[in-house]
């Protein structure tokens, strides 16, 4: 909204005043034009999967989303903490055992351990024998984006893609990135 207003307002003073309602005044300097050059490289070949005829067949599609795998999740560690996310290896054991993170995950301020991700995929595979396609629509990465690096994101995404491909070996899996996959700009 601020950018739209800044780009369409006729009076620079009004634009700065409006901006300073939301941002510190020294952040409200707008330049008229700027360019970002992006090398898109070579466009990959398009692979079109075979799609069943809607009139004659139906397809079974498994849709998975928002796994939020946290590689630092540690069963038994503190699930009730003052941090935005809990159950991490560096948060230690709680004084009250009922505040400990469960082996399969924890509904409190925790993301998913790898054993939950793998168990979920195995459960889907075992209980749905005929799957035509698997869609994973993002949010591979845990919620603590401010404490992660590009390398950690790459490892998490690689682990999840590998788990899907190993579980659904003969089934096409389509991946999309979610809002948690981008790494912060200053990393």
From TrEMBL:
**Keywords attached to this entry:** Glycoprotein, Hydrolase
Superkingdom of this protein's organism: Eukaryota
Q: Which Pfam families match?
A: Metallophos (PF00149)
Instruction: List each copy of the Calcineurin-like phosphoesterase domain by range.
Output: 61-181
Report which residue ranges the record marks as coiled coil: none
Could you identify this protein by its name?
Calcineurin-like phosphoesterase domain-containing protein
């Amino acid at each position: 909204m601020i950018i739209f207003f800044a780009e369409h307002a006729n009076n620079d003073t009004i634009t700065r005043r409006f901006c300073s309602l939301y941002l510190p005044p020294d952040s409200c300097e707008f330049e008229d034009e700027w360019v970002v050059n992006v090398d898109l490289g070579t466009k990959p070949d398009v692979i079109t999967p075979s799609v069943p005829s809607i009139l004659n067949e139906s397809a079974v599609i498994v849709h998975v989303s928002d796994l939020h795998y946290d590689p630092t999740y540690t069963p038994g560690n503190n699930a009730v903490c003052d941090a935005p996310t809990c159950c991490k290896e560096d948060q230690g054991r709680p004084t009250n055992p009922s505040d400990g993170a469960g082996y399969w995950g924890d509904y409190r301020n925790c993301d998913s351990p790898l054993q939950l991700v793998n168990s979920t995929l195995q459960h889907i595979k075992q209980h749905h024998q005929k799957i035509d396609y698997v869609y994973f629509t993002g949010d591979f990465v845990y919620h603590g984006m401010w404490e992660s690096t590009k390398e950690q994101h790459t490892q998490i995404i690689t682990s999840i893609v590998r788990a899907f491909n190993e579980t659904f070996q003969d089934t096409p899996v389509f991946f999309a990135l979610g809002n948690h996959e981008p790494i912060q700009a200053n990393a």
